[in-house]
Amino acid sequence: MEKVIEENKQGTSLVQEQKEGNTKKLFIESYGCQMNFSDSEIVASILANQGYNTTQNLEEADLVLVNTCSIRDKAEQTVRKRLEQYNAIKKINPSMKVGVLGCMAERLKEKFLDEEKIVDMVVGPDAYKDIPNLLKEVDEGRDAINVILSKEETYGDIQPVRLSSNGVTAFVSITRGCDNMCTFCVVPFTRGRERSRDPQSILEEIQDLWSKGFKEVTLLGQNVDSFLWYGGGLKKDYDKASEMQKATAVDFAQLLDMCATQFPKMRFRFSTSNPQDMHVEVIEVMAKHHNICKYIHLPVQSGSTRILKEMNRQHTREEYIALVDKIYEIIPDISLSQDMISGFPTETEEDHQDTLSLMEHVRYDFGFMFAYSERPGTLAARKMEDDVPEEVKKRRLNEIIDLQQRIALERTQRFVGQTVEVLIEKDSKRSDQHWSGRNSQNTVVVFPKENYKPGDFVNVKISDCTAATLIGEAVGYSEIMQ
User: Binding site, residues?
Assistant: First the structure.
């Protein structure tokens, strides 16, 4: 799966503004990718209309939900430990209900409900609107389960409650599911086939965020570049669409252009891109608009064409490099980031060297790098032997990480002496006298506060850097503030 797992956010319990008149308490905790955190906001919105306000105090909760991830074994083990803790509290407060949402719900439904009897409710990623009905089932003494995958559900009609928000940046989901069937990935089985949201509902959600003072939106999907709205339904059924539907269809380049044009004072990012679906039109739209950030998360997973084929990635090493060269040609100052897996089944030393040489060519600014771990239910788990020894995986992973850190420092150093536009997001982690924000290329920038505030776009002259952070001083507001 190609969603970035932000370790510092794992297990965050979410809190929202309290809705007057609501008397029940919801404790909701999220693990995994940003899509899961976004889904938790949808669930909180649905339950706010059922009388629930969020709490960060587990002991007082009437309903405890954990939004889960199946991407790595570590994520699943963490959730299991949390479920044990919930159930210890449930013994003291027997009326408390416990539910599992998301990808683990779909994968381990029988285990949770029947074998281990550790939860009351299991809800898959397409069934969140059914939670009020499932709660009634639990009240009547029955286990409640809905993990049916939908061909239509995009939650386009739900205005998510923004949880744990900095009030400056927000995520807007534009697609659900995935059609790619990479052999290492469980997403198509846990989140279903790919479908896109009505562009009008996306623009309305962004308008609502703008009216609330948000300044940056990340368009989110398992595979944003394959966004295709033709009136509803699955992406794979597009060839059955009518001539009128095809003539009025909206692809990702058009959606991105609409967002940037309608909201010129907002900044836009998107994640995640799949190399096989990224077309030159998207890059040209990025180049055309100042308010589309010059950053692409472009997962490759391996630099070896042979391993890419084993992974069922729909591109070769050569095609990926050609795409990267085209991106740099159109947007020379862009930043790219990667996902990389070391030790995929049958990976040889030569394959590993191909990965290192690809990294040298592409020169990624950031990376998310993991040793391969077999995920139950995937094609790789069913058909391939996990045959690379753990110590070899770890050694190769360390070589990948070391190379990425060296390149990242070189890439960050290019900004020293430049003036960059920064959107202020929050206090710096190290000092409450400094602001922290990101430039267009997604690099963190830290500078003295002076009279600026979160949500301001500021020009910052860069004087120093580490591998991941730029340090400088503000020299005034940027043009977008005019």
Answer: 33, 69, 103, 178, 182, 185
Strands of the sheet with 169-173, listed across from one edge: 169-173, 216-220, 267-271
What does the longest C-alpha to C-alpha distance in the chain come to?
A: 66
Binding residues for [4Fe-4S] cluster: 33, 69, 103, 178, 182, 185
User: Could you give the CA distance from residue 127 to residue 123 in angstroms, rounded to a whole number?
Assistant: 6
Q: Strand pairing of 267-271 and 216-220?
A: parallel
- Burial annotation 101-136 (CB, 10 A radius, 16+ → b, else e): bbbbbbbbbeebbeeeebbbbbbbbbbbbbbeebbe
Mean pLDDT of the chain: 89
Q: Return the pLDDT at 1.
A: 32
Give the angle subtended at the CA of 215 by the CAs of 424 and 425, to the nearest 5°.
25
pLDDT at residue 55 tops 80: yes
Specify which residues 52 forms β-bridges with.
24
CA Rg, the chain, in Å? 23
Q: In this predicted structure, what is the pLDDT of residue 9?
A: 58
Q: Hunting for tokens 């595979």 — which residue is that?
A: 223
Strand 295-297, strand 12-13: pairing: unpaired
Residue 419 sits at φ, ψ, to 5 deg, of -110, 125
Contact 72, 370 (CB under 8 A): yes
Long-range contacts: 275-278, Cβ < 8 Å, 24+? 275/299, 275/300, 275/313, 275/315, 275/319, 275/320, 275/323, 276/180, 276/313, 276/314, 276/315, 276/319, 277/223, 277/225, 277/226, 278/225, 278/323
pLDDT, tens only, 286-330: 999 999 999 999 999 999 999 999 999 999 999 999 999 999 999
Paired sense of beta strands 444-448 and 434-439, if any: antiparallel
